[in-house]
Amino acid sequence: MFSEAHTHLHTVRDLLRFAVSQFNKAGLHSGHGSATAYDEAAYLILKTLYLPLDQLEPFLDARVTATECKQVLAILERRVHERIPAAYLTHEAWLGEFSFYVDERVIIPRSFIAELLQTQLSPWIGDPDQVTSALDLCTGSGCLAILMAHAFANAQIDAADISVDALAVAHKNMEDYGLQDRISLIESDLFSALQGKRYDLIISNPPYVNAESMAQLPQEYRHEPENALASGADGLDATRQILQHAARHLTEDGILIVEIGHNRDALELAFPQLPFTWLETSSGDEFVFLLQRQNLIQ
Predict the structure, then answer these.
(1) Residue 184 CB coordination number (10 Å)
(2) Greatest CA span in the chain, whole angstroms?
(3) How many angstroms separate the CA atoms of 31 and 85, rounded?
(4) CA–CA separation, 296 and 255 (whole Å)
(5) Backbone CA torsion sign across 102, 103, 105, 108
(6) Residues near 22 by Cβ (< 8 Å), separated by ≥ 6?
(7) The whole model's pTM is what?
(8) Residue 27 — left, alpha, or beta (φ > 0 → left; ψ -120 to 50 → alpha)?
């Protein structure tokens, strides 16, 4: 199908129709930034043709050159046949208005914490200017550390990850945003390399996929680093360690915010003594919890 397509497709509209048909036929899984086959097809076509990502309509009937057509089809074919997520094909992922470089060394950015940082964690943080030290634990691409730097102008931020490869990607993103003076990258297995450090704010989007879900992951997710996804039988291995050690790394009035996927019931069952505050996100209030330091001191 792809080998003959270039002789029949002449406009952006033609390419879009073909892409949506092929994506639907292949049963591609969306979950890395685009909600539908149409959205993902439009993004890949516009990105490959160097067109504005928010202006599809004016270009729908524009004719493409033979070379442009082949370039678009090559990207679409990789998406279909190799099941590579679009973000890895374009080396670009978005959180709100912020774009980040990504490749297969890091998980593709997607976090409800990014939504919460848009409001500077109000009302839990009354004065954002008073946040002077913060930690992004399991930073991956560095995306949340960068968002924190924009949300809290006076904060010096540590961004920690166990993966040296991930930290290399985070370093590129940090440089792209000119934040070398405000973000420090640290190789650390959770808190292991952070002894003696304390923070006004700790955020973490750690691995949280349980063993059953790992065994059933769509092929697209298998391109991501397994250690950024898997977290034991119940998905709580990393979160348990964070809860065990976070208090000693928080300042007196410090706050811990952790994203845990669909594990709310399992977490509350495992820690019935902790007064979790569940933060409201665009998809509900079961994905991100908040604890203050005093909540963690038993």
Answers:
(1) 14
(2) 69
(3) 9
(4) 10
(5) positive
(6) 1, 2, 76, 80
(7) 0.93
(8) left
Q: In this structure, what DSSP letter does residue 139 have?
A: -
What sign does the CA torsion over 168, 169, 170, 175 have? positive
In whole angstroms, what is the distance from residue 292 CA to residue 277 CA? 9
pLDDT tens per residue, range 113-133? 999 999 999 999 999 999 999
Taking each helix axis from N to C end, the angle separating 12-26 and 66-81, rounded to the nearest 10 degrees, works out to 10
Backbone angles phi, psi at 179, to 5 degrees: -110, 25
Whether omega for the bond prior to residue 123 falls within 30 degrees of 0, making it cis, is: yes
Question: Which residue type, as a one-letter code, is found at position 228?
Answer: A
Amino acid at 294: Q
List CB contacts of 63: < 8 A, sequence separation 6 or more.
10, 11
CA 264/CA 50 separation, integer angstroms? 42
- Angle made by CA atoms 104, 234, 267, in degrees to the nearest 5: 110
CA 175 to chain centre: 18
Tens-place pLDDT, residues 63-106 = 999 999 999 999 999 999 999 999 999 999 999 899 999 999 99
Integer Rg of the chain from CA: 21
Using an 8 Å Cβ cutoff, are 204 and 137 in contact? yes
